[in-house]
Amino acid sequence: MPPRREAGGAGSGAADTLALALAAQQSGRWQEAENHYRSLMRRWPREVAGYINLALLLRQHRRFPEAISLLKRGHSFCGGDARLWRVTGLVLHEAGQAAEALAAYGKALSLDSSQASLWNDYGDTLLSLGRMPEAEEAFRRAIALNGRFAPAWNNLGEVLRRGQRVAEALTCYGQAVAFQPEEGLYHSHRGVALTELGQFDAALQCHDRALERLPESPRVHNNRGFTLWKAQHLQEAEAAFRTALAQDPSFEEALSNLAQLLLDRQRPAEAVFWLEKALLRNPHRVEVQNGLGLARQEQGDLVAACEAFETAMRLDVRHAGAATNLGNCLGERDRWEESLACYREAVTRQPDFVQGWVNLGKGLHDAGCFEEALSAYDRAIALEPDNAKARLNRAFTLLLQGRYPEGWRDWEYRWGDEQFRPFRKYQEIPLWQGQALSGRRLLLHAEQGLGDTLQMVRFLPQLACFGGEVVLECQPPLREILQGIPGCASVFVARESPPECAFQLPLMSLPAVLGVTPETIPAAEGYLGKRPEGATWPRPRRIGLCWQGNPGHRNDRRRSIPFVVLQPLFQLADCEWVSLQAGPAAAEADRHSWAAGLQRPSLEHFRQTRSVLGELDLLISVDTSVAHLAGAMAVPVWTLLTWVPDWRWGLGSEETPWYRSMRLIRQPQRGNWPLLIDTVVRRLEIRAAEGADP
Questions:
Q1: What is the pLDDT of residues 77-115, one digit of tens each?
Q2: Which of 8, 136, 349, 447 is least surrounded by Cβ atoms within 10 Å, i.e. has the fewest?
Q3: CA dihedral of residues 13, 19, 22, 23 (deg, nearest 10)
Q4: Closest CA to 191 of 238, 228, 223, 152
């Protein structure tokens, strides 16, 4: 807002003093200008121009407390002047007092509601408070008063973009550019909207136009970096963020973006460096504290991460992201009740926070509160119907409850989740949806883990009724043991070219297409080989052990067992223990003298694993591919499950329709593996005493 140039009706003396003040201000003689304004107000206290201009001058030099005090004095003399209330709103907003600014703008509007720029300022304050519907209405009122007012079009675009109405936002940014093409930020904002629509080339053109007008704008460089980041030009994105920070080292958004980019590039130490550097300048910056928490969490320093998230939450009581991040971090520390409380706090702070509802649902699921979890996912999906994470997590809960038809529907949303995208392929081939094959070839391709593949190939014989030929792409370690499986014409691996096929289907989508329910799972015993059956247990009993699954699995930390917890098993008499553990975890036994008798056969190939399994009386295993292979061979297997297991194992029962030879032994308390192993020891003792089959 420019200084006022006219005095009121106070006479030529006031006008002359105002002119002297303006001349000094325009020449950069700030102290002289301030002295003239103060003289004006002493002699003519009802001269509103003095309060307005001096307040703007103090604001320019960030002397907000003095400006606010001055404006309060002005209102005692000129309380009915809309312009003075508007400047009060402007100063209060920039001083970080948004709620007070909103009240001031409201007073100004009650005195004069005919100014588009005033409605725009009012809307901008509402936007900063997160009151999106009211902000949208304010910007639309501004546009109704002046349809060519570019700032209101730009700000309306911001509201719509943040509300996920990106196509509408793009139109608004276009209007802002059309009415004020010299304003570089409007071009850059249009580029951000195009980025969110996936139109990266057009977005970069917008940022280039913005840089022609504002070559030293940190915001434009930051926005350009955002587009490059989303377009996977990571090195160029990093350079753009660094340019933005070179121009403004305190630019919070660029700092957060650079730190997150460095985290994505597995460089958390550098992210911490930048974030801590920013906090030295200002420790009260919420997004920087939140980013520091994420970086510390990535480094594995969970205590420091929690401290950073807690600081962010204290700094901004409306910051839902920090609350949900703290919940994630506390969950990693097994502080589950506190974690849940944080998730609840996040959605209380921001009821339309989709990821907050998703995280709350996951926390409730992990606590065994399944109906509450479903309600949380429903809230997320109501806010964002195509949110892949919400749909996928809801599928896990429904499937775990045995509600397969509902679960399979949500399961197909997994392709929108980043962890599943790498498994999506062969999209150029039509997706099979259960129609007759009529002599044509169907390609089934594996996705996810080895255990998933071993579990799902049981359905291949059922496909014969569709009248075609089935070929299977599997993971390389499984090829040898899947060759010749019933219902499959040939097996190949990903590095080989498949034969020409009429249809394709991801293997984990097969149950959905076939309409599988818990009652219709085929009892396919021994479909990957079968161990000879014995009536009683021999002595000594030959028992296999597998205590760790795939370390890359998202839940491996909870579903794997520290080897030391297995010590009570080695105190049992008449047992020969055989390791079925592969990978680095197999060497854990070497560190314990009580496990010296553990046999360690060579397990370089699944063929060898299958051979060893065929010689066992029992396998005791965590939830991993070895347990699936044992079940597929009809080898007796006790599968040790976490408090809330993977979806396929259901709830409560020791039996599973997936494998008749398998028994499920569940944690009696969340995270308590020692208590579960005590249960295993007692069962082994009872079975041995009775001479019963495992």
A1: 887 899 999 999 999 999 989 999 999 999 999 999 999
A2: 8
A3: -130
A4: 223
